[in-house]
Design goal:
four-stranded antiparallel sheet, rod-shaped, 4% helix, 16 strands, mainly beta
Length: 248
């Protein structure tokens, strides 16, 4: 089972007993001659069963020596309890690491940083809506330049440009199949269409409308014949006013 959290702390206690055979103030080994080994700040010392105050009654500063504030007597029993390092077999410390298996979090995950890298073949998101540029006070200015970038030989981008008040595409847009999708509908029409030459094709014909300086021309792309549209200038019609409105 993987562990994530604080750095592994101290767990098992190692107990050393020393019986004084001379009057002195220092202990370096137990009765069996095994040297003391402790982590500074994680050690307890008892003199004849009475716990000593580390830093006042006794000094434990180097991991291998215990020095009393005053000499102990012959026959005194000194007990040193040191906590050994707790090391789980499978850990990822809070300072960083790698999980080699799957990780499931039942709560929320907050990532604070500048870059979040997802190195995976497929990214599956259950939510239907993805928010971007979600700052405390979002505006069109904070959204400027936001969008999606698909990396390739050149970047394929969908970006929001605040100056144009529009989404912009730097690549072509194709339907997934020929003659199968609509751009708008009878109920949802595009207001104006701005284009250069206009190409029209179906199962009967294939034409291109070409804008010349003073007229429009049509090219039959099946025969490559070019036709000029004859246009007659007309006066602007008068504004219609309902007769009943004149009597009011």
């Amino acid at each position: 089972m993987s562990y994530i959290g604080q750095e592994p702390g101290l767990g098992q206690a190692q107990r050393s007993i020393f019986t004084a055979t001379a009057v002195t103030d220092t202990v370096t080994a137990d009765d069996d001659g095994l040297p003391l080994n402790y982590t500074v700040g994680q050690v307890s010392v008892y003199l004849n069963g009475v716990k000593q105050v580390v830093g006042t009654d006794v000094t434990c500063s180097n991991g291998s020596t215990v020095v009393f504030d005053s000499d102990y007597a012959i026959g005194d029993v000194i007990e040193v309890i040191a906590l050994s390092t707790f090391s789980p077999a499978d850990t990822v410390p809070a300072s960083g690491g790698t999980f080699s298996g799957n990780v499931i979090m039942s709560g929320n995950l907050t990532v604070n940083g500048t870059t979040t890298t997802i190195d995976t073949t497929n990214l599956i998101v259950e939510d239907k809506n993805i928010e971007m540029a979600s700052v405390d006070s979002p505006t069109d200015s904070t959204a400027d330049g936001g969008g999606l970038t698909l990396k390739g030989a050149s970047d394929k981008e969908i970006k929001w440009v605040n100056a144009d008040d529009a989404w912009t595409f730097n690549q072509h847009l194709f339907p997934s199949a020929d003659n199968a999708s609509d751009l708008g509908s009878a109920a949802k029409r595009w207001r104006n269409v701005y284009t250069t030459d206009l190409h029209l094709a179906n199962d009967r014909g294939n034409w291109t409308v070409i804008e010349e300086e003073d007229y429009l021309s049509l090219r039959n792309n099946n025969t490559n014949k070019l036709y000029k549209l004859v246009m007659e200038e007309i006066e602007q019609p008068p504004v219609f006013q309902h007769p009943l409105r004149e009597e009011e």
